[in-house]
């Protein structure tokens, strides 16, 4: 928790004078919103983003005074529910805006909300033409937007032409909503300079020790992932290991079978074969490769290069920590750090330290 708080403070200092919010969707990227959100509030975060209404309700119970935006917008006939919990839906379509506007008029209340403009992601949000038209007629709305936002598609790809184009489009749109704060930058976007930060930045993966782009400021690792070794064995050269006989041992080997598998979020693609080495874990202070496929509940490590007797049943293998980052594990698994964190399984015993 101290690492998460420090990461937020680092990004807040970088983003100033823009406000630094915190994205805590997907159960705080799989790490536990009930522990992460209060730690971020204590560090100084006051504005939070989640994806779903249910997540927002959980967060409201944890942080009664926080500003909470719901990124996935307003489902039909839920305006009253959002208002009752003092939530701010991110409106990205004309029907959503109409429903929220009608509700505000009926209640005689100007309830804060965000407008989402699609500047090139082509996923959610008003078209630029719709946003421009809305800006010209916003006096007719039943509410005053508290934020206008968009989302960068390629901020983690340095020099991508779409990033500069999105910033230019967004700058033109936000200019038309005079007096309304703007938000464009996610974690990677926060590093792209003052021109991308506008009035509010929305870091997510950086808070949790993942790196969405090279050249980040010093951020602390957050998660340590250990699993128990449940058997140590010796296997002859030429034997295969695991389902599908995907990897044949080239030497007499000592193997450690670990109580972790794809049911726990260690991806099947993290396994090893005769063609490619899989992920590593640290055992007795040394990195050891997986051997063979990852199965539902088990994975096997090659500990041959460790001294005889250095590994015993009940010892731990470290899959995150001791120099192995979320992004290291992701790269070896053919995925991204976001998926590693959000896939951490329910069977782990979780211990929260610090904060």
Automatic annotation (TrEMBL):
The keyword Isomerase applies. Substrate binds at residues 123, 296. Residues 222-353 form the Alanine racemase C-terminal domain. It comes from the Bacteria. Pathway: Amino-acid biosynthesis; D-alanine biosynthesis; D-alanine from L-alanine: step 1/1. One of its GO terms (molecular function) is alanine racemase activity. Its cofactor is pyridoxal 5'-phosphate. It catalyses: L-alanine = D-alanine. The active site is at residues 25, 243. CDD domains: PLPDE_III_AR (cd00430). InterPro entries: Ala_racemase, Ala_racemase/Decarboxylase_C, Ala_racemase_C, Ala_racemase_N, Ala_racemase_pyridoxalP-BS, PLP-binding_barrel. NCBIfam families: alr (TIGR00492). Belongs to the alanine racemase family. This is Alanine racemase.
């Amino acid at each position: 928790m101290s690492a998460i708080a420090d990461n937020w403070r680092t990004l807040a200092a970088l983003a100033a004078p823009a406000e630094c919010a915190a994205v805590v969707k997907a159960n705080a990227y799989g790490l536990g919103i009930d522990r992460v959100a209060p730690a971020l509030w204590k560090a100084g975060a006051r504005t939070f983003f989640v994806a779903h209404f249910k997540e927002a309700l959980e967060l409201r119970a944890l942080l009664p005074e926080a500003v909470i935006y719901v990124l996935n917008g307003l489902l039909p006939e839920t305006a009253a529910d959002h208002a009752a919990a003092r939530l701010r839906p991110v409106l990205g379509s004309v029907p959503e805006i109409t429903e929220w506007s009608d509700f505000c008029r009926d209640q005689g209340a100007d309830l804060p909300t965000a407008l989402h403009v699609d500047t090139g992601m082509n996923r959610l949000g008003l078209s630029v033409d719709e946003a421009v038209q809305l800006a010209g007629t916003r006096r007719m709305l039943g509410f005053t937007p508290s934020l206008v936002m968009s989302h960068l598609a390629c901020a983690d790809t340095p020099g991508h032409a779409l990033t500069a184009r999105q910033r230019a489009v967004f700058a033109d749109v936000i200019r038309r909503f005079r007096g309304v704060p703007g938000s464009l930058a996610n974690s990677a976007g926060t590093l792209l300079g003052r021109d991308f930060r506008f009035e509010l930045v929305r870091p997510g993966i950086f808070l949790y020790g993942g790196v969405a782009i090279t050249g980040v400021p010093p951020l602390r690792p957050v998660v340590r992932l250990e699993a128990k070794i449940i058997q140590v064995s010796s296997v002859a050269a030429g034997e295969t290991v695991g389902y599908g006989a995907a990897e044949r041992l080239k030497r007499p080997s000592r193997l450690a079978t670990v109580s972790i598998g794809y049911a726990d979020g260690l991806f099947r693609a993290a396994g090893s074969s005769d063609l490619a080495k899989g992920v590593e874990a640290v055992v007795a202070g040394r990195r050891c490769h997986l051997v063979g496929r990852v199965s539902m509940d088990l994975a096997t490590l090659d500990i041959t290069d460790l001294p005889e007797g250095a590994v015993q049943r009940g010892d731990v293998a470290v899959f995150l920590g001791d120099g192995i980052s979320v992004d290291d594990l992701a790269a070896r698994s053919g995925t991204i750090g976001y998926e590693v964190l959000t896939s951490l399984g329910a069977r782990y015993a979780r211990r929260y330290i610090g904060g």
